Amino acid sequence: MLENKEKKPPKTEVDSLLQYYKDGDNNAAEMLAVSITEKFPKHQLSWKVLASVLKTKGELFRSLEANEKVVEINPGDAEGYNNLGNTLIQLGRFNEAEESYKRAIEINPDHHEFHNNLGFAYRSSNKFDESIISYKKSIVLNPGFALSYINLGGSLKAVGKLKEAEESYKKSIAVAPKNSESYTYLALVLRDLGRYSEAETNYRKAIALKPENFSAHYHLGIVLFEFRHYKEAAKHFQLSNNVAHSKSFALKCFYLQGEKSIFYEQLDSMIAEGRVSPVIGSLSCRSEIRYGIKRSNPFCNDPLKYILKTDLTKEYDFKNIFIDEAKSILNDDTLSPKDQGLITNGYQTTGNLFDRKGTSIARIHDIICLEVEKYRAHFKDSDEGVITNWPANYSIHGWLISMKSGGELASHMHDNGWLSGSIYINIPPKLKSDSGNLVVCIDDEKYETMGSKNQKESIDVVTGNLCIFPSSLLHHTIPFESEEERIVLAFDVIPG
Questions:
Q1: How far apart are CA 435 and CA 427, in angstroms?
Q2: Which of 63, 77, 82, 114 has the largest CB neighbor count within 10 A?
Q3: Gap between the Cα atoms of 421 and 467, Å rounded
Q4: Range of the structural domain that residue 268 is part of
Q5: Given a cut of 80, is residue 37 above it in pLDDT?
Q6: Are 373 and 462 in contact (CB under 8 A)?
Q7: Where are the alpha helices (DSSP H) in 297-443?
Q8: Together in a domain, 336 and 264
Q9: Domain-located, residue 112
Q10: Looking at the structure, do residues 113 and 151 belong to the same domain, yes or no?
């Protein structure tokens, strides 16, 4: 019997494979690619097609195996390593993706997409400084590649460099003026910079270019909500295709407009769907006070009983761990403060503190996680949803608030959280017994005299205190007078 010495598959089979792939006939392409690779296991092109088709079909582990075959057959294939990195990104294996992109760049250092993709891998691991370097390299190699400007803007925003982020997004628009997402990202930065009318204009441009830009509808709704244009805000939340917390914000709009029947229709619908969230919990409590109608509260019926205050100075070196790190961040002139309309005589840092590098900020993060678990253990016997529906996974998002004499924080709640907390880095001596106190409450003052429930609690806080409470509670601070700065590290426990 003659041995088959053929090294390559017949040209007709390869041509058919490429035609199936070009036509988007993934099932036929997969079947033929599998057939070819079984007979000719070193035919790299067939493995490449198979890897791409399987990735498109969502079969990521099989796609990964096929990509690994591609670079095994030809270790000098830069595109193969790039494709391998893309699959690893989708699998959440960011460190491995970094190495794959680096190998692609070693082989072909002048390919802008490889640097852009390496930047994305860095950013996915919260290595923002490294991602910024990679995105800038991609831009040098191809100044006309809009995606690198968008990605660079995202990393700059994450580290608090809002002005630079704004410029990067503007450059992405100059390169690709019809890209709806660029206007959305630019608007997010403009909002953080306090330029709300410009943000609104750019959200509307994004929607005009792409009416199904659900993120733009959602964030435009947020801006309109902040300016109390509740009717139009609700319309955009409803057009956002359930992005993020759009249903919850629409519910808040109906409540704040006094649309009682629509409000209860949506509230009942969300409760029936099994939704558990601070917004539902808050509005269930608030509407009971306002309208005298009780509804099942899946989050927390009596949130004022779930406030926990701790003295961190008894367990930790508070000055070295918390005070010194907070002051170092606040003294960093490269960071842009986030405009925060709720703060009088003060400002808030932008981005998530815990995206910053350094052992001190990592230590603070770990302490908060430990204290959050202590909170959970403290209330472990509770049958309230805030405990019984504890999120399987959560992240900590933190920021610093600095206020000077006369400063205060207006009443609000953290819609995206599960628990909210404050670590009091520096609380000036009190001229009055309640100066600078944290006030947690069920509803705004206009309704707090209605009903029979206790509706608020004033918490006396001093330097070193930690307060944790359900995110369904509204909270504000009492003004203070002092020559010293009042510094607080605020944080949210965010599900998922």
A1: 10
A2: 114
A3: 5
A4: 186-275
A5: yes
A6: no
A7: 318, 324-330, 359-378, 385-388
A8: no
A9: yes
A10: yes
In a domain, 15, yes or no: yes
User: What is the distance between the alpha carbons of residues 275 and 432, in angstroms, rounded to a whole number?
Assistant: 43
Residues 208 and 170 in one domain: no
Instruction: Quote the CA–CA distance of 199 and 234 in Å, as a whole number.
Output: 18
Instruction: Give exposure, 194-233, as e/b (b: 16+ Cβ within 10 Å).
Output: ebbebbbebbebbbebbeebbbbbbbbbbbbbeeebbeeb
Contacts of 139 (CB under 8 A, 6+ apart): 112, 145, 148, 149, 152
Residue 336 has what DSSP assignment? P
pLDDT tens digit sequence for 278-325: 999 999 999 999 999 999 999 999 999 999 999 999 999 999 999 999
Helices (H) and strands (E) in the chain, counts: 21, 10
Residue type, 143: P
Query: Dmax over Cα atoms in the chain, in whole Å?
Result: 102
pLDDT value for 1 = 34
Find the CATH number of the domain harbouring 26: 1.25.40.10
Encoded tokens for 184? 């959305």
Q: Name the strand (E) or helix (H) holding 47.
A: helix 44-56
Residue 84 structure tokens: 């391998």
481 and 406 Cβ atoms separated by less than 8 Å: yes
Cα dist from 353 to 232, 347, 362, 416, whole Å: 33, 15, 10, 17
CA 260 to chain centre: 32
